[in-house]
Design a protein that fits this description.
Helix content is about 30%, strand content about 25%. By secondary structure, it is of the alpha/beta class. It has a single domain, classed as 3-Layer(aba) Sandwich (Rossmann fold), CATH 3.40.50.150. The longest helix has 10 residues, at about 15-20. Keywords: Methyltransferase, Transferase.
């Protein structure tokens, strides 16, 4: 399946800022302050985050449910170990890693508690968990990347809105304490008024499948509607030395 991100159509320069947070530039700021050790990239995809962690000196484990994604991750980070698995049943021993990162995955699981319990299980006492995902406000607005199915038709991944309290209720009982939480927002950027309104034929389409492209016809309104809206939620948890 191919991701086609609607915000590329929607936000202009603001969209670039958001897309950067989607590719991990914001959540990496959380990781850069943490000690180097054994790091698990949970739902690692093609190994984007794993590659960044490797550059910072971490020993990498990656887990994903897609064999195709894992093949790409192995090509990208040949020194890492990548395993087929599920967030609910990580193929990793207890107390095995110093850091778990999970990016853009928890929006697609129906309940956070079993996943948080798995993260706590594989972390060593005092270990760290960094999660970045679409902000619940964005989920409510429908800001979820659509996918193009193998037959070329548009599709949607199953998506769930997890509120801030849901993360807390899932994390605290398993010994994960909050160290930091941020919600980066779409910046309000002053833009010059366009001299010409683009014709529908000049916008990115096909609009009947991807209606977000029509916002190019009202770009100022699109920017105003999204300025200041949280785009991501980024968490830093730490596992207590003595779990309850």
């Amino acid at each position: 399946m191919i991701y086609e991100h609607p915000l590329a159509y929607l936000l202009g320069l603001e969209g670039i800022a958001l897309l950067r947070s989607f590719t991990g530039e914001y959540d990496r700021d959380f990781v850069d302050t943490l000690p180097v050790g054994v790091a698990l990239d949970a739902a690692c995809g093609t190994g984007r985050f794993a590659a960044s962690l490797t550059e910072r000196g971490h020993q990498i484990l990656g887990v994903d449910s897609s064999p195709d994604m894992l093949a790409r991750a192995r090509e990208r980070v040949p020194q890492g170990e990548f395993l087929l698995g599920d967030l609910h049943h990580l193929p990793v021993p207890d107390d095995a890693v110093d850091l778990v990162v999970c990016s853009l995955a928890l929006t697609h699981v129906p309940a956070l508690k079993p996943v948080m319990a798995e993260f706590a299980r594989v972390l060593r006492p005092g270990g760290h968990l960094v999660i970045s995902d679409i902000h619940p406000e964005g989920v409510a607005r429908g800001v979820i990347p659509p996918v193009r199915r193998p037959d070329g038709q548009p599709g949607r991944l199953a998506t769930y809105r997890h509120l801030t309290g849901d993360y807390m209720r899932a994390a605290l009982p398993v010994g994960l304490q909050v160290r930091r939480c941020e919600g980066p927002r779409v910046p309000a950027v002053e833009r010059p008024q366009p001299t010409d309104t683009p014709r529908a034929s000049e916008t990115i389409g096909p609009w009947e499948h991807w209606p977000w492209c029509l916002t190019a016809l009202a770009s100022e309104a699109a920017r105003a509607a999204n300025a200041g809206v949280p785009t991501m939620i980024v968490w830093h948890f730490q596992l207590t030395e003595h779990q309850p």
